[in-house]
Design a protein that fits this description.
Order of helices and strands: HEEEEEEEHH
CATH class: Alpha Beta
Distance between the termini: 26 Å
Mean pLDDT: 97
CATH architecture: Alpha-Beta Complex
Number of helices: 3
Bound molecules: nickel (II) ion
Strand order of the largest sheet: 1-2-3-6-7
Low-confidence stretches: none
């Protein structure tokens, strides 16, 4: 497995709608394993393919936080929200492509998501709590949407300028 570099906002690839996965190939399985390793290493609880420069509808997540619960690495291909609750909840979100920036985002508290797994089988599951926030955040990535797109323009511009500065510093280092 290989750690893949995570793209930092602003990057045109983070603003694009990604393509559906049509076939589970060996390369795709490798990518899934790499994405999980990259996510755990970061560390983060979710990662979408465009964040590593792959323009496919594919994401990984594991929102298990306490050490007593076994890890639950999930790989979702072509995930789609098939139902969302009217109840909403607010979480302070962050993103591996927008390091060290956090802001409250309100989303449906519960969602049902349909996806294809690595065996090509269709799966459906209802998520709540942090899992619901995470899966919606990652599906947004597949549609070129970032959590800062939910914020007021001024706040979004402030974060974007910080990220531009961070990228300049990293390029120089
Ligand atoms: Ni993100």
């Amino acid at each position: 497995m290989t750690l893949r570099p995570i793209l930092i906002h602003p990057d045109p690839r983070l603003k694009k709608v990604t393509d559906p996965v049509t076939e589970v190939t060996a390369d795709l399985r490798t990518l899934a394993a790499d994405m999980l390793e990259t996510m755990y290493d970061a560390p983060g609880i979710g990662l979408a393919a465009p964040q590593v420069g792959v323009m496919l509808r594919m994401m990984v997540m594991d929102c298990v936080k306490d050490d007593a619960t076994p890890a639950r690495p999930m790989v979702l291909l072509n995930p789609e929200v098939s139902w969302s609750s009217e109840d909403r909840s607010t979480y302070e979100e962050g993103c591996l492509s927008i390091p060290e920036q956090y802001a409250d985002v309100e989303r449906p508290a519960e969602v049902e998501v349909r996806w294809m797994d690595l065996d090509g089988a269709s799966q459906t599951e209802r998520f709540d709590g942090l899992w619901a926030t995470c899966v919606q955040h990652e599906i947004d990535h597949l549609n070129g949407k970032l959590f800062i797109d939910y914020l007021k323009p001024l706040k979004r511009q402030m974060i974007t300028r910080k990220m531009q500065k961070l990228k300049r510093e990293r390029a120089r280092a």
